[in-house]
Amino acid sequence: MTTTALPPTSQILDDLALVLFGEGSVRSRVTTIGADPICPSPHRLADTSAAAMGAFALQVAGVDEDRGAAPQQITITATDALDQLRAALLAQINGVGPHLLSDDPTLLGLNDFYPTRDGWIFLLSTYPHLRAAVCTVLDCPPTASAMRVASQRWTGHELQERVVAAGGVAVVAHTASEWEQHPVARYLADRPVVEVERIGDGPLRPLPPLIESTTDPNGWRPLAGINMVDNTHVIAGPVAARLMSTFGADVVHTSRPDRPDPIGMLAVTGGGKRNAYADLRYPAGRAVFANLLASADVVLNSYRNVARFGLGAEQLAERHPGIVSADVHCWGIDGPWGDRGGFDQLACAATGFALDEGAVRGLPSGQPALPPTHLLNDYLAAYLVAAGAVAALRRRAVEGGSWRVRVNLARVCMWVRSYGLFAPDHVAGIEMPEPHIPCYTVVGPLGTLTEPGIPVTFSGRATPTPAAPTLLGTAQATFADITA
Asked: What are the chain's domains?
């Protein structure tokens, strides 16, 4: 660990810009105010968050530039960037935190690190079927105390593999050096944090004409005319799709009725989308999805094994030349753990990130911890995959082709660590700052939602805010006709 010679945030952003579109593709510039360390973490949470947000903002500004608009000056503050990572925890729905709105709030409360015979493991129970898998293997009731006793009867690897085999998700807390030797880490290390790749032929598709209102405070919609299918769940994918919707894309979110996201999660990720059911296990659901694909520009997916439904990136490119297929995965969709589920916290546990965090918190030696924002990869991945999708749309407009965009949560952790760590004694005494990120309020079917906005300031445009979220399955699976 070091506290010297860390690359500035501007360098992190420049590195992202090269991956997304190449040098000189955007003339707009980003200024970041403040820098890490600003919280008790050895990792550069604010700096990398600001860079990810800046990457998305530059691509959105680039859409305007591609239409002939002047470049913009974009401003992001480090404290706002840090707060964006914990946006879901700062939101309120009718004055209640989203995490309290689950049908069974204990589901989230059981997500934690548990001791094993040889270390620590993260067990996740966000959904009932995941909790059932964990508790079936542990042969204990779903209480933290019982799970903590039962987990110590196992080695970490044994418990990890048994939970996965039972249909759950779990991962051993590795050190960073252990992770570097892991087959998944080696697979991910060969890939950039966001992959933007042309995978097939397709026609040039110019960006739609700018649709702008002079009376609506959210009148700047640079992505208007772009149709997007949001086949994602939890946080990273849905937040990415909400970003696209906020800047004008027409987004239809699809889900299966028997595996709904908790209502609180839907509230903080669903703004501006229409919600339709499309259960891909059945012909009727696949027909609904096929109808959307016929006019989709972007398909965003966060589910595993969609190729069995003909929805892999190459399959989509063959049937729908010119489509942009974006995926958010934890471990890499075609890597050694491509068939395993994963979540934000699991990526932190696996990569050594959590053990580094634990070393700063004054915990007993070798005990892991999540970052002080609690969430990390979900929001970083959301901005990165959205930036990749917009970059692919811009490239399609000048190069043609079908495109694939990929972001993996574990790779995001590795990316954050790659820009250097602060020594524990350098950050251990820093207090977690009070949130200062500007919030917005919107009223909709779920009630009154107050949550952090998109903390990016554009010099020539007002930053839009998300529209109200709607309930699952309440819309038809069709895109709007913007010419009507």
From this structure: 9-99+193-336+372-458 (3.40.50.10540), 102-183 (no CATH)
pLDDT in tens, the chain (484 residues): 555 689 999 999 999 999 998 877 899 999 999 999 999 999 999 999 999 999 999 999 999 999 999 999 999 999 999 999 999 999 999 999 998 887 787 888 899 999 999 999 999 999 999 999 999 999 999 999 999 999 999 999 999 999 999 999 999 999 999 999 999 999 999 999 999 999 999 999 999 988 776 556 677 999 999 999 999 999 999 999 999 999 999 999 999 999 898 889 999 999 999 999 999 999 999 999 999 999 999 999 999 999 999 999 999 999 999 999 999 999 999 999 999 999 999 999 999 999 999 999 988 889 999 999 999 999 999 999 999 999 999 999 999 999 999 999 999 999 999 999 999 999 999 999 999 999 999 999 999 999 999 999 999 999 999 999 999 999 999 998 654 3
Measured CA distances, 444 to 17, 216, 255, 311, 471 (Å): 36, 18, 20, 32, 10
pTM: 0.97
Cβ atoms 197, 404 nearer than 8 A: yes
Distance in angstroms (rounded) separating the CA atoms of residues 61 and 339: 36
The Cα–Cα gap between 301 and 241 comes to 10
Residue position matching structure tokens 């299966």: 256
If you count them, how many residues does the chain have? 484
The conformation of residue 98, written as its DSSP 8-state character, comes to G
Q: At 393, which helix (H) or strand (E)?
A: helix 377-399
The 73-77 sheet, strands edge to edge: 29-33, 73-77, 457-458
Cα–Cα distance, 72 to 64 (Å, whole number): 9
Q: What is the DSSP letter of 448?
A: E
DSSP string, 139-182: TS-S-HHHHHHHHTTS-HHHHHHHHHHTT--EEE---HHHHHTS
CA angle 478, 313, 393 (to 5 degrees): 65
Half-sphere exposure of 75 (CA within 13 A, CB side): 9
Q: Rounded CA gap, 6 and 43, in Å?
A: 11
Say if residue 284 is exposed, middle or buried (CB neighbours under 10 Å; 0-12, 13-18, 19+).
exposed
Nearest to 309 by CA among 340, 275, 283: 283
Strands 457-458 and 73-77: antiparallel
